[in-house]
Amino acid sequence: MTLYGENRPPADDDRPTVQVTAVSWPVEEPERPAPVAPQGGPNRSRRVRILVAAGVATTVLASVGAVAVYAYVGDVPRGTSVLGTELGGRSRTDAARELQAQLDRRAAELAAPIEVRVGERTAQITPAEVGLTVDVDATIAAAAAAQAHAVDRLVGSREIEPVVSVDVPKLETELKKLVGKQGRKMTMPAITFAGTTPKVRYPKPSLAIDTEHSAQVVKEGWLRGEPVTVPLVENHPATSAEEVDRMVEELAKPAVAKPIKLTTDRGSVNIPPQAIAKGLRFKADKAGKLTPSVDVKQLRSALGDRLDAVEVAPKNATMSISGGKPKMVDGRSGQQVDVSALGDELLAVLPRTDDRTISAELKPVAPKLTTEKLAGLGIKEKVSSFTTNFTGGLSSARSQNIVTIARHVDGTVVLPGETFSLNGHTGERGYAQGYRDAPVILDGKLVPGVGGGTSQFTTTLFNATYYAGLEDVEHKPHSYYFSRYPAVIESTIFWPNLDFKFRNNTEYGVLIDTSYSANSVTVSIWSTKIWDSVKTEYGPRRNITSPKTVYLDPGPSCIPANGSQGFTQDAFRVIKKDSKVVKREKFSWTYDAEPRFICAKEPS
């Protein structure tokens, strides 16, 4: 063994010096006598051997290369087939063309309906109707991506499953039809309250198809041309019946066992169990997991006016008419309990039997209507006005009711797009609100009733909004015609069933201004004038009926009446702008003939 730098060859040896590092040779056998070298010497014999060996190696390498070229020619490995069709050695384009040709040959077979069984029911599903197809491009891509050893590519074979597509929603629809009444929806767990008593609904599993699994089963059966069985699978809610019982015992029952004390910087209030029950919710998600929460808005509503002890209500800016011009008065901010953080605090103390106290911050609350907003509403001029007359002076109970409701509505601002409800604005009109007994129509006759006369104000308000061109949402004329009102264009009201509503269908604010005298009430609408004119055109009265005479038992509750004719009439609201009619709205009503009521016994 010769190492670099040791036992250098003689200087007359012109062979190149070879550097050898870290080489280990096998032990050689004893050297045998060498045969007589042929002519040319030993060097020539050695070169012959090297050349022969090199030739053999070259031949082998060339053969291997040829094999490799043969095995790897094309995009799809040799020996690869799909649906029994050999695609190996082809380009993707050629393979796709060949596979499509095979599919075309099997078109009738693949288009044949599939027999599908779900539970006890069987039906035929047409492949085309559910989008069953072989995705040729995806299948060829899968075939081309198949990895194989070179020898396997040369002599082996492999079958690639075709990639099948299906319209899952359509298939699901067809399978659900087949399920029919065999299936059942999941019964979600629930905990509710009847008063302060928890009521439970225990969960039950659904019985339905598994969409993803069903699609795979149908795709496989379609390719094989075999009947398919799609199983019905039970799916249990995430919350069990035992967990529902645990929630009742650990949360629902103790939650409403005692009040909760709510403390603020302005004092404290008690939240009674009834309010807790209305605010505490147990909601199940789509998986049937039941989770407790507190609906703070519902809780606030259930508390009613209890929070008035610790809150300061915001006050809106107001507008009134002074000296023939609108005048604004500033509002003020208020303070309200910040309910956004109450939910988690309540859930933390509801399971407790003691130490049931939570604290809340009071946050500033701006008024809904500020002077800045009010100033930008375009309330600048009188748009319409309407007056009705009453008798008896301001001392009568009926007149006092008209004055009371007029004061309540005076100065109301209706924002663009908002709907005004007279019942919603005044609330119940009872003795506590300052209303008195006066004649009202009940069951077809005049009887004493609290709030009598408010229909006259309603008619006045209706006409003011009508002639302002505002949208009529709800009104109902009287059953009988009263000459103090315009026919058809009038409205009654009764708490809580009969209401009057109009919508501000303009881009400007609307101010309702009311005033009264000893014998009349007036409503004016202030805004920005849009229409040139709003007028009423009447059709003739028709279907006229005469009143009958009715005798009533005399007494304090009997109110006589002269009676009036009944009739049907049409009224048309005609709205003009730029001297052209832009709207023509029809209003129709049929009045009953009001009987002539006589408070006396009927003559024999």
Automatic annotation (TrEMBL):
Q: Which residues cross the membrane?
A: 50-73
- The domain of life for this entry's organism is Bacteria
Q: Which residues form the YoaR-like putative peptidoglycan binding domain?
A: 242-358
The protein, known as:
Vanomycin resistance protein VanB
Q: Where is this region: Disordered?
A: 23-43
Sorted alphabetically, the keyword list is: Membrane, Transmembrane, Transmembrane helix
The record's listing under Pfam families reads: PG_binding_4, VanW
- Taxonomic source organism: Micromonospora zingiberis
